[in-house]
Amino acid sequence: MIKKAEFVTSSQKYTDCPPPFKPEYAFIGRSNVGKSSLINMISNKKALAKTSSTPGKTQLINTFEMDDTWYLTDLPGYGFAKVPKGVRGGFNKMIYDYIEFRKNLVNVFLLIDSRHKPQEIDLQFIQWLGKKGVPFSIVFTKLDKISSTEYQKNLNNYKTELLKTWEELPVIFSSSASSQIGKLEILGYIDSLNEH
Ligand code: GDP
Question: What biological-process terms (Gene Ontology) are attached (predicted)?
Fold first, then answer.
């Protein structure tokens, strides 16, 4: 359990992020995937990450510090249609540079809505992570919104899709911020990586 969770800073690019002297974990996903809710759940704070009703509003890298030992990064949501192409380009570069060059980044948690079939934008992002050799895990969100049968079906779809290009599956978590599911598993995983 996290005892202390604090906002550190918002940055426009990775070079403005705090000095890279603590292990860092980034959370990313399509807009509205439930990222802020998940961050609030795992940090034990109701409104640490701001749940945005305006997709694509916060286009900044938000850094939080957990228990004085590691950083949690809230990356802007991707995949919203309303942002003009030019803006989207800059936004992508900001995220991609952060992920590729941030020295202390240990793992990226890619959030995916468990109700949806594999989406091109997520699959492309996964391919890019693979190409760059960035360690990542998948976190399926909003588990409470579907039946376990449906979830199993969607999960198997995803695994099949991933195994077309990957030899091994990434670590996969299932979560629900409303039902407090997945919190201990995700935190346990972060702890285990911090111990290395
Ligand atoms: P973000 O844009 O990815 O940060 O997503 P938010 O955390 O703001 O959530 C988007 C919407 O989904 C909000 O209306 C949340 O209340 C809802 N939501 C987020 N997580 C869950 C969940 O686990 N279960 C359910 N039922 N709704 C959720």
Answer: division septum assembly
